[in-house]
Design brief:
The complex is a heterodimer of chains A (114) and B (116). Chain A is built from no helices and eleven strands. Chain A has 114 residues and is an all-beta fold. By secondary structure, chain B is mostly beta strands. Chain B is built from no helices and eleven strands. Chain B is globular. The chains are: A mainly beta (114), B mainly beta (116). Chains A and B meet through strand 5, strand 9 and strand 10 of A and strand 4, strand 5, strand 9 and strand 10 of B.
Chain lengths: 114, 116
């Protein structure tokens, strides 16, 4: 039973346009959400996070939005660049910012076309 | 800094054989995690250690899987006997006691396992 769902296995976007990656979760105890980025033959790396007390967090070209009532979060990348082509994992944890256990989704493969 | 080191990077074995995956965490990190990535289930936490002691192994799929951490700089994940459905990429990650440990899990490059 997937507690964190990424329903789009892949996404293609033109360079310079906005990329929107979506994630849904089912566990109401989750209160900290993250996005990880993974290039081929490498391990995932942390990208951006958001606490459940916020509805938006921005870091440069990356913005994460959280809609708690809908149990939905999204990652916006503006503008998209070819170097953003990677697999993006949504992850969640409970217990606030100090938790060591992450629940990941299956990932969405983003392809940014030059 | 060397980062998390995993070996081997690729492993091909036959069903029924024993497989041992190895991990060297980042020096000074006292938490170590083993994850498995498959198309069907995505990235799953199998087990994690703190100060070489297993804290939560609820993600370990079956008794065929076992993990050890004999010291702070080395951990193994063993599958005995291996089955085709164990084919996956296995990641090791480490972190230290940190304000936001979720953001500071450093992953190794993974071991791609194929069981024929």
């Amino acid at each position: 039973d997937q507690q964190v769902k990424q329903n789009s296995p892949s996404l293609s976007v033109q360079e310079g346009r906005i990329s929107i990656l979506n994630c849904d979760y089912t566990n109401s105890m989750f209160d900290y959400f993250l996005w990880y980025k993974k290039y081929p033959a490498e391990g995932p790396t942390f990208l951006i996070s958001i606490s459940s007390i916020k509805d938006k967090n921005e870091d440069g070209r990356f913005t994460v939005f959280l809609n708690k009532s809908a149990k939905h979060l999204s990652l916006h990348i503006v503008p998209s660049q070819p170097g953003d082509s990677a697999v993006y994992f949504c992850a969640a944890s409970s217990g606030g910012a100090g938790s060591y256990q992450l629940t990941f989704g299956k990932g969405t493969k983003l392809s940014v076309i030059p | 800094d060397a980062g998390v080191i995993q070996s081997p990077r690729h492993e091909v074995t036959e069903m029924g054989q024993e497989v041992t995956l190895r991990c060297k965490p980042i020096s000074g990190h006292d938490y170590l995690f083993w994850y498995r990535q498959t198309m069907m289930r995505g990235l799953e936490l199998l087990i994690y250690f703190n100060n070489n002691v297993p804290i939560d192994d609820s993600g370990m799929p079956e008794d065929r899987f076992s993990a050890k951490m004999p010291n702070a700089s080395f951990s193994t994940l063993k599958i005995q006997p291996s089955e085709p459905r164990d084919s996956a990429v296995y990641f090791c990650a480490s972190t230290s006691r940190d304000r936001v440990p979720q953001e500071t899990q450093y992953f190794g490059p993974g071991t791609r396992l194929l069981v024929l």
